[in-house]
UniProtKB/TrEMBL annotation:
Cofactor note: Binds 1 zinc ion.
Name under which the protein is recorded: Endoribonuclease YbeY
Function recorded in the entry: Single strand-specific metallo-endoribonuclease involved in late-stage 70S ribosome quality control and in maturation of the 3' terminus of the 16S rRNA.
Xref: Gene3D superfamilies: Metalloproteases ('zincins'), catalytic domain
The EC number(s) this enzyme carries: 3.1.-.-
Subcellular compartments: Cytoplasm
Amino acid sequence: MVSFFSEDIDFKVVNPLKTKKWIKNASISEGYELSQLNYVFCSDEYLLEINKQYLDHDYFTDIITFDNSEEDNELEGDIYISVDRVRDNAATFHTDFDTEMRRVLIHGLLHLAGYEDSSEALKTAMRAKEDEYLSLF
């Protein structure tokens, strides 16, 4: 199951049913059973506090993913997304907000599926996977 929440802002996903189905299909394509994914949309400040508290990082980010899975073949987690950062990134990368938001949504799922972005090579591979799923939306 995929759920969408807003924490300290008012935000609604465009086409929520289509988006949930797309996320579920991506999970299946990656070989995982989707247990529970909670997407929490928030502000820069809210996500900065999570970043400081749980990761000891003092900087803004667009997404933080917490893996709650107890089984190897299931996806379960909480994915926090800064709507402020997504909006800024959309402008920076010359793309529309909805496309950038979908990229970040799938980015969180890919982290739970084992993809990393800690090096340039891994970032490139993850970006290609994001592009693949974006084309299927």
